[in-house]
Amino acid sequence: MIYLNGEFLPIEEARIPVLDRGFIFGDGVYELIPVYSRRPFRIEEHLARLQHSLDGIRLPNPHTPGEWRELIDTLIAQQSFDDQSVYLHITRGVAKRDHAFPPGITPTVMMMANPLVTPTPEQIENGVAAVTAVDNRWLRCDIKAISLLPNVLLRQLAVDAGAAETILLRGGFMTEGAASNIFVIKDEIIFAPPKNNLMLPGITYDVVVELANQNNVDVRIGAVPERLLRHADEIWQTSSTREVLAITTLDGAPVGDGRPGLLGQRMLEWYQAFKTAVMRADYT
Q: By the 8 A CB rule, do 91 and 24 touch?
């Protein structure tokens, strides 16, 4: 079952007009919320990021936070699986094709839930490969826009190379991955790019920084030079679905000794303990 414009229905029955501006222009935003044991992960933060994206494209929010939470809870309850990935998709709505904002139209709102797919035991044990590419996207990467063609093309570079992610470089500095945030570790110090218009502010990014601070690990937020990336002891990929995953090969060369590093292993343990304590407590 999915949600579309006020109605829960089978996905096979869902219909959107061809003049929807999401289809015509990519004029919309989205959000992805992981769900553990039927509990949305940091839903307030995800809804705040959704609001930031809506504000960024000047689209009024069609629901209050309370209404969103009720809709999301209803969607979660209708699924047969406990761990889910809830996808929210909001476009400006249906109107005659014209670049200018059409007045008085109703936004299109769609939500769906799929089983939450996290890294495999083999990926956790061995890490994954990544490639690098020039970050040729627009300058508002902080907006979670549905017009993801640049990210799609950059991510495909990794697929073509048999890798899991493309790490993006702009002006000699790392920004993020095509579909994730990236952390660089050198001499047991975690380096992370700042949350600005050149990267999507990840919810998992925030958790990793919080866990590092709680465990007295030095975290330095600031511009990450390409040379630091290429001489890193460890590199981590983080996202709602990748969680904390070691990148052990970069552009065909090993990262560190080519195995997941000790700090990354500890961070993954802290992250899983956090999930268990916060998201699965008292679950029956």
A: no
Whole-angstrom distance, CA of residue 181 vs CA of residue 242: 10
What integer best gives the mean pLDDT of the chain? 96
Respond yes or no: is residue 275 known to be catalytic.
no
**Beta strand 189-192 with 219-221: parallel, antiparallel or unpaired?**
parallel
The strand pairing partners of 115, in sequence order, are 84
Query: Is 124 within 8 Å of 138 (Cβ atoms)?
Result: no
Per-residue pLDDT of 129-181, as tens digits, reads 999 999 999 999 999 999 999 999 999 999 999 999 999 999 999 999 999 99
State pTM to two decimals. Answer: 0.95
**Residue corresponding to tokens 């949305």:** 40
Q: What is d(CA 268, CA 266) in angstroms, rounded to the nearest whole number?
A: 5
Among candidate residues 144, 186, 195, 275, the one labeled active-site is 144
> Among 66, 120, 54, 119, which residue's Cα sits nearest to residue 91?
54
Q: What is the mean pLDDT of residues 84-108?
A: 97
Q: Is the pLDDT of residue 284 over 70?
A: no
* Helix (H) or strand (E) segment spanning residue 24: helix 21-25
* Structure tokens belonging to residue 188: 């047991």
